[in-house]
Amino acid sequence: MTKEHAYKVTRKDLEKCWDFSVKYYLDPKKPTYDRTNKQGRGLGGVADSFFNKIIEIGICKILHDINNAIEPKTDFEIHPLNKKKTEPDIIKVGDRDPKLYVEIKNIGEMDEWIGPKLGEVESIKARPETSDEGTIYYVYCEIRDSKGGSGREKDTLGVFLKKLIPSDKNLQQFHDIGDLEIVVKTVFNVKDIEELGTRFHAGGMIPSTNAIALASDRTKPRKLQNISDGDFPEVELQNNELPRLTSSKSERPNQEWMDYPNDLGAFTFQGNIEVYEERLKTLRHFWIKCNGNVKISNDVLGTKQFKNGDLVDYQITAKGQFEEKSVDDIWVARSNESKMSKLGPSRIEEIAKKI
Questions:
Q1: Are 189 and 138 in contact (CB under 8 A)?
Q2: How much is the average pLDDT of 284-295?
Q3: CB under 8 Å to 255, separation ≥6 — which residues?
Q4: Domains plus CATH for the chain?
Q5: CA dist., res. 59 & res. 139, Å (int)
Q6: For residue 345, how many other CB atoms are within 10 A of its CB?
Q7: Helices marked H in the chain — which ranges?
Q8: pTM for the model
Q9: Does residue 129 or residue 149 have the better pLDDT?
Q10: For residues 145 and 142, what is the distance between their CA atoms, to the nearest angstrom?
């Protein structure tokens, strides 16, 4: 079993994030708008954003635990804004510069894709010290809550304010600092992601990775009866490929369904199948009837095996219903076990050794 790399959050860690947030907010030279939607933010919004630096603290501590000879440091100084330059999250190892460029990202259970923006990668590669893709690393980690819950109770700002203002009854609903830990989930370098990842260009949808799913025992008999009764038209198949059609409604004028994301590539199959289309008001299903053992493959999402008599739901849907993504990305599907196995959390040990 792979060793887990985790770090328990402390009050001192959260105090450091709070102090940085307040200093940043009070600096008149610093913008306070949100970088995504360009809306202005108060201290609470700024603090909510910068409390995410807790993961940087956690990764530095984990690297030190792996290799006691190093002391990685993240940046908690207020610097002049440089819009054209991407900076690493680990700025020093002791008193020297790091030998690797490390980006640290937060990831949640609902995140289906992993990987950076292409513009960000190009900006990093343009730095003179990072011309080798093997020296640029990405570390993805999650903030885990030992008590579980809906997720809101583990909000780091809320957890800190609970400790800061113990008399506030509403804040007592948040969990305790001791319940939180930073856990490494995925590690890769740019060379890995360029070999294993897929470029998804701006202008297309963000496809959900749950494109192929076995029909439930409750759904299967009803849909097979519909097919038998002729309620669903059969879809013509060519070249052993599933139809390059989506199941998400388009908001473009004179267009009913969103465009198929060509970057996703084809879904090919081996075996004897029939495909039937079921149209509903807001989406459609393509039901795959397996007349024998069947294998469905996609270079991006991986391969799934089905047996004779299975009914499979094939849907290409837009995650978040966004029809046009705004930037170019390079992604690996977290559901693709073959690829994700090469980007495992144990690779944090590479960074501890090389940095």
A1: yes
A2: 98
A3: none
A4: 6-202+328-354 (3.40.1350.10), 212-321 (no CATH)
A5: 8
A6: 20
A7: 11-26, 43-50, 54-66, 118-125, 156-164, 190-196, 219-228, 337-340, 348-354
A8: 0.90
A9: 129
A10: 9
